[in-house]
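Sorry to interrupt, but I need a hand with the structure work. Leave the record below and I will have a look:
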Amino acid sequence: MGSLPEPRKEDAVVVDKPGAHDSYSCYRLHAAAAAGSSSPPSGRDLYGVVREACAQQHVKWPVECQVIEDKVHHFEDWPVYPEPFYESTGTELRPQPVGDELGRVVYHYYPTSSVNYFSRSCVGGNKYLNEDVRPSLQDDSDTTLQFESRFECGNLGKVVQVSECYYELHLRADMYTSRHTQWFYFAVSNTRKDITYRFSIVNLTKGDSLYNHGMRPLMYSCREAAQHGVGWRRCATNIIYFKNHDSSDNTCYDSDDDGEDDAPSYTLTFNITFPHDHDTLYIAHCYPYSYSDLQEHLLSIQNDPFKSSVCRQRVLCRSVAGNPVYLLTITSPEPEEDGKKKRAVVLTGRVHPGETPSSWIMKGVLEFLTADNPKAHELRSQFIFKVIPMLNPDGVIVGNHRCSLVGRDLNRQYKMVVKEMFPAIWHTKAMVRRLMDEHGVVMYGDFHAHSRKHNIFLYGCENRRNQDNHLREQIFPLLLHYNGGDKFSFRSCKFKVHRCKEGTARVVVWMMGVLHSYTMEASFGGVSEGPRAGTHYNIHDFLSMGRQFCETLFEYFDPQPIKIQGEAEK
């Protein structure tokens, strides 16, 4: 009941689209379209929310960003069995960065403008692609790998070929900043099978990483997707994350949800082999989820007669670049007076662009809340759900890890909000305040991802000063632990409110009077306890976590206090 449907491979075919940039576009075609035509589906049908109050919208980029014309899609697939962590041998090589002097630059792309701040945007970005970014191959015998990242969420800055099979990669920092390099997503083509390559990403900034605790990067082969319906899979061996020798020991200047060091710099290095000759592959830190992916999902909800009857979509505001920040209202259709009696649940996601598990969990939440099953019906009849699935679309689009286009972490701006600089945060806070006045807000959830801890867990806000509610904030996470089974860890949850978190959504909403205010953290890695210990999360795990979050809401607010008391006493 309320389960997520398994994707059917007969319903989707992944093919390469012919054209100027055919090696960088994997398109999902519905079987009927694939049978009748080789053309990809119309962008107009896929990337807008068709609604009177929420018209077709195209993606806006900073004008200096070069963007390949074809949109990138990936087959939504996951392995039958959880993929195991990498087991370190203790003998992994630690090659130090050598830079341009001892190698050959084979990719170089840093968007530049006359000013080092966001000035204006345009639809689709700059379509002029500088050929110097990626030098052409000399001839058919040239085995140099070809790199590309000028697409949504991509963020590769420079690649230096050190030897025939060894490449140094530099990530772009968040736009209009000189920091925050952790997320990565790029394409590789002109591959050769059964050759061991070494990739070193040499300008990462965190002092520790899950790559030192079993996590492996992800690889997507367009040929495997087209021929076998295979999506993202974990890859690489000889994985190690280490500090570069020439780094200074500057202290951390900012206390983020999972920490962020300005300096020193670190290297992630690994060996990788490719399954096919002349394939196009994508390498990523985690499963990508772009702004266009969100728009496609919202359109699928809108085009479903039942889902659209319980889910109203509109634009909450526009981002700094002019992209719509979508707001979904999910509830059962009832007379206005009855609707005013309902309490509200507010859910937000993707304030940090690089934290893609947030979007996959949010997708699972939306699929459950708009489903035609008894638990979803009961939740909709009891509550009004206000959902903002992507708070930072600009950052997502350009491939940032943490910031918006004003170069700031939006999850530190809730306490003192400047509307013009942080429109999504200002409107979210105003919406919560209005809902509290008109309905009452019983829960707030902000979905994130964590780069240093395994498992999925919650951060809450302890209520020490109110004896009537003391420890009550821990009951919902405890129930979620029972429902989440092999994915959620109550042991990893924390409830202390630190001073450095006073500007975050969770703490500010709690200080506004919402007792149950949580940050959900989903590891980029996987599970470290229980029967699934030592295995990675996949897309299905994140979707299922969204469903289990909703099922736990159903149980927690079930008007049977004996059940809640019984669970708390276990």
User: Anything to note?
Assistant: Residues 1-56, 249-261, 566-570 have pLDDT under 50 and may be disordered.
